Amino acid sequence: MKQIAIIAPTASGKTALSIKLAHQTNSIILSLDSLSIYKEIDISSAKPTLRERDGIVHFGIDEIYPDDKFDVVKFIEIYTKAKKYASANRKNLIIVGGTGFYLKAMIDGISQSPNIAKQTQDIINEKLTNLEQTYNFLYQLDPKYMSSIKPQDSYRIEKALGIYLETSLPPSQYFVQNPPLITIKRDEIDLFEIVWDRDELRKRIALRTKIMIESGLIDEAIFLEQKYSRGIAPMVSIGLKEALEYLDGKINKQRLEEKIAFATNGLAKRQRTFNNGQFSNVIQDELANLENTILKYF
Questions:
Q1: Beta bridge partners of residue 93, listed in sequence order
Q2: Is residue 20 domain-shared with residue 77, that is, in the same domain?
């Protein structure tokens, strides 16, 4: 079984390319996207429709409901399921999407966090009511580990506190004793990246934003708010967050389009920076050429 990954900023044309390649290489696809994972979030995620998937088996799309918790550990479980399916059916596997962090975690490995008992979680919840005090406590306990965590990062602060309270070990020491488990060996996967001129990518983002709004983004935001409330994690994602501002009367439709495009351009910049800084030996090419470039690796 051959494994490849196609990484690139949002709106780069990754999805259509991956489906075309899947037909030519007897592959299935694993979506590397933190929003397409959710059922009922179709427009703001820009996930491919069933028609667009064109009969190719996809994993990582419509796996969980919007109010379910999702993290990199869950993504690795989905990758394992996809790999098992590909192997059993004599298929190759194409991993494609913009959430490079998940791919990085699988290649570099992640350490399994300890199970948090209910009584421990109760203590954590109480201490998180004073985030600054909790951060300072953890920083004095483990300055090396906490120096990479921002004082406002409640998610990572909660994880660090849970490790300490459950194991009595500072996070740094815990991770020494529980080294990362690697999911994909680097020599088992080829990485490809679509390269775009920044101005051209901005035009693609602007067009996709317009199509997203015309396709019913606002109605999707209304549906999700009514069914799940604004408290679920996906509601702060690009597109849905701005749609809620529009529904609150804070911005008009023109401003809605501008804000989504601006935020998406910022995301694309962060994705490029992450990919360039975190992955090595990546084969880069323009979209028009990358299909033939990738086919040479099969």
A1: 3, 28
A2: yes
Q: Which of 261, 260, 216 is nearest to 242 (CA)?
A: 260
**Do residue 191 and residue 243 come from a single domain?**
yes
Dihedral sign for Cα atoms in the order 224, 229, 233, 237 = positive
* pLDDT confidence band for 73 (50 / 70 / 90): confident
Q: Examine the domain organization and report whether 68 and 209 are in the same domain.
A: yes
For 201-228, write each residue's pLDDT tens digit.
Answer: 999 999 999 999 999 999 999 999 999 9
Q: What's the sign of the alpha-carbon dihedral 277, 260, 30, 74?
A: positive
Domain shared by 130 and 241, yes or no: no
Beta strands in the chain (DSSP E): 3-7, 27-31, 58-59, 92-97, 190-195, 282-286
Question: Could you give the number of structural domains in the chain?
Answer: 2
CATH number at residue 142: 1.10.20
- Identify the CATH number of the domain in which residue 224 sits: 3.40.50.300
What range does the domain containing 125 cover? 118-177
* Phi, psi values for residue 178, rounded to 5°: -130, 75
Provide the 10 A C-beta neighbour count for residue 262: 16
Residues 6+ apart with CB under 8 A from 132: 151
Which residues, 6 or more positions from 183, have their beta carbon under 8 angstroms from its beta carbon? 76, 79, 80, 105, 106, 107, 109
Cβ atoms within 10 Å, residue 146? 23
Q: Is the same domain home to 200 and 275?
A: yes
